[in-house]
Amino acid sequence: MTQYRLGGAEAAFAALIWDNEPLSSSRLVELCARELEWKKSTTYTVLRRLCQKGIFQNENGVVTSRVSREELAARQSEAFVDEAFGGSLPRFLAAFTRRKKLSEEEVAQLQRLIDENRG
């Protein structure tokens, strides 16, 4: 399975791409220099790594996403539940609600999701 986990610097880098795509690789270097204080070599190293993970692509000097921000978040969440709770969403929710009680609106939203995605 492709690894979709991003560290803090990779997440900031990914956000720059998602917020500005499509963008030229030279524009990405400029953004990373300004926003992340990165050198050109760092930008290209991180871009290459995230392209290898299948999250972005750099074709003919144009950088675009292959995975949306929302899809990446969904995959990261699924991997977390798999690793930490044996893939059990009820076990995750039980652990979550031990520390934070759900509001009536949150309960209603969860019920709608359950109803929409039932069997």
Per-chain topology:
Layout: H1 8-20, E1 23-24, H2 25-35, H3 40-52, E2 56-59, E3 62-65, H4 69-85, H5 89-99, H6 104-116
Antiparallel strand pairs: 1-3, 2-3
Characterization of the model:
This protein has 119 residues and is mainly alpha-helical. Helices cover 66% and strands 8% of the residues. The chain contains 6 helices and 3 strands; from the N terminus they run H-E-H-H-E-E-H-H-H. Strand 2 and strand 3 form a beta hairpin. The longest helix is centred in the middle third of the chain and has 17 residues, at 69-85.
Q: Per the principal axes of the C-alpha atoms, what is the gross shape?
A: elongated
Mean pLDDT across all amino acids: 92
Got a strand count? 3
Outline the low-pLDDT stretches. Answer: none
The percent range for strand residues is 5-15%
What is the radius of gyration computed over CA atoms, rounded to a whole number of angstroms? 18 Å
Strand order of the largest sheet: 1-3-2
Please trace the helix and strand order, writing H or E for each element.
HEHHEEHHH
Look at the helices and sheets and give the structural class: mainly alpha
